[in-house]
Amino acid sequence: MVTNYIRLGVNIDHVATIRNARGSIHPDPIKAAKIAQFSGADGITAHLREDRRHISDDDIKKLKDQIEIPLNLEMAPTEEMLSIALQAKPERICLVPEKRLEITTEGGLEVKNIKKSKLLLLEKIINKSYKNNINVSLFIDPDVKQIRSAKNLGVKIVELHTGSYCSVDKKNKQQELEKLKTAAEYAYKEGIEVHAGHGINFDTVVNISKIKYISELNIGHFIIGEAIFWGLEKTIIKMREKIDSAI
Ligand code: PXP
């Protein structure tokens, strides 16, 4: 059955970005997560980057202890992150590619053409996480071949990268949307739960939410940015309304 409700995961990384700009304790991403929770968010997403540029190890512990809605821990597929995840026990990890010099996650995780050593590590992370009751999602480009490889790895969830659709010019928008639709339908029919995220705002969320195979969106930068003007609660409620009215 296709979904008639799309869960909203709120990514709070950029509250930590502002906090870290002053090396202080304000604003507190845990407080933001609590506000997101009572404003109707279905989950909290946080990316513990290898360079710790925003979320810290301590933030992850506090999120797990103090937040009741599921925690989706975004992380690079490394041994270090695996051991943190096994200790923190988030409800789910989302494996993302990571480059030190990137401003944000560029492109999805390459699962189709990877070296044997990287494949073995990916398999280890996936298997150990499932054994420890941690769900696994792979952040991948909307590409059927990537989905097929993700399925071969045994993952039950993929998060489709919506960055190209959200940032492309008007002329190529429809083409990018079609890629998302095709990928979402393919994954869903292969029995994989379909999530989506990256670069989503009040405009782009509408067409993305109309893709009936998608069951969760993860949105961060726009929500946190918009919250400066309207407050976090109002912004999340408005995002929820946009999603619901599009379905
Ligand atoms: N999903 C994944 C896998 C991401 O890496 C990010 C960015 O951290 C997001 C969703 C949220 O993207 P944005 O901050 O552009 O809304």
Features:
alpha/beta, binds pyridoxine-5'-phosphate, eight-stranded parallel barrel, globular, TIM Barrel, 247 residues
Could you explain the architecture of this structure?
The protein is built from eleven helices and eight strands. It has 247 residues and is α/β, with parallel strands linked by helices. It has a single domain (7-246), classed as TIM Barrel. Helix 3 links the parallel strand 2 (43-47) and strand 3. The longest helix is centred in the C-terminal third of the chain and has 20 residues, at 170-189. The two termini are 14 Å apart. 43% of the residues are buried. The mean pLDDT is 96. It binds pyridoxine-5'-phosphate. Pyridoxine-5'-phosphate binds next to strand 8 and helix 10.
